[in-house]
Amino acid sequence: MNVLDNVLRVLRGGFSFVGRLLWALARLIAVPLGALWRMFLELGLIWKGVIGVLVVGLAALYIYFVWQTQVWTNFNPDYPARYAYEKAQTPGEPVGAPAGEAPAASPQPSSTEDTTASPGAANETAQAPEPAVQPQAPAAAKTCAPSAIAEVTADLTDFNVNQNAWISSMVLYKAGFFGLDWDRTPFLDNKASFQRGINAAVRRTAIELVDSLGRLRGTSQIDSDLQKARGNLQFAEDSWYFGLSPFGPKTPTPSYYRSAIRDLRSFNARLENCQAVFDARADNLIQYVDRIANDLGSTSAILKDRAENYNAGWFDTRADDRFWFAYGQIYAYYGLLRAAHSDFKGVLAEKHLDGLWDTMEQQLRAALNMQPGIVSNGSEDAWFTPSHLTTMGFYVLRIRSNLVDIRQVLER
């Protein structure tokens, strides 16, 4: 009985402490607001009107900001299914045979008139009239296969900045929570971290498109569209219309990313017209796979460091940033590696890698099933506070292990 009394006493003490803490926080907010309200009542009518308009405008801006951070438009872990990869050809290869010329009309056989017409008449041979020359059918325009990797890279960027608002450069996100960086709070930052994870994968892919995939053996000229896309995607993620360093007006981040979308689609359009290059060689795939494995290795180390050194359970305010960044990377690489399966289908078939590649894609998709409402960073043996970072790190390492195996087979 004494044990039960002690437990109840501890629980009452805990609830009492939480109640006093919430009351103190409420007073901390209410006291300055009350002082501001009293000052507002003492102002003249014009100043009240000006301040009222500003407050209403700021409230509308915050409503829009909260809405954009909480609504993830067109979020779909199964988005790669909408691409018809099984029907695709190697990028740059002609699609079908171009139509040739129409067959020429065969000449009509000559006919000879009857020579028994009248006595003394000379025998004449009547020639058949010349056959009419039929016009030739115009040759069909040559069409080549586009790149699935370039298509998915453009679509992921479109998902980030057109289908959704780019959170990291919104003015209220930059302002923070009463001056505190949103990434250091448990509020309204998950979507921003998710978008930055996607962007990290997109940037990596744009670099590989420029350096190796979009040129022949690294000695040909760099593709201008891909080079512009890479430069635009490398732009700072948090630029707004105005900045302090340097001071003055700026071009916001989404404008640069939208330009990159146009550049990537321009490259694919030229590839379809057989006016661009996509070098689907095994060594290029090895390099791309190796770069992705390195990216995921870095992400795994970040997750490991946070899980081991800051395991505060539900109260780790940075755990959600790490988790959703890794989730965004995997979300993007799931589609990009499915696209690579299409673009390098000849290489994978030659190396008998389709089965191992499919396993890697399944691991990517399995990781995307983790969608916790609140990210917890508890110790690995915790009862009530799961370690979501450790679990995500486990998936990341499995995917990386598959990529390393694929690289080893490709090098044989």
UniProtKB/TrEMBL annotation:
Coiled coil: none annotated. Residues 91-113, 126-139 have a biased composition (Low complexity). The keyword ATP-binding does not apply. Pfam families: DUF2333. It comes from the Bacteria. The chain crosses the membrane at residues 21-40, 46-67. Keywords: Membrane, Transmembrane, Transmembrane helix. Residues 90-139 are annotated as: Disordered. InterPro entries: UCP029693. This is DUF2333 domain-containing protein.
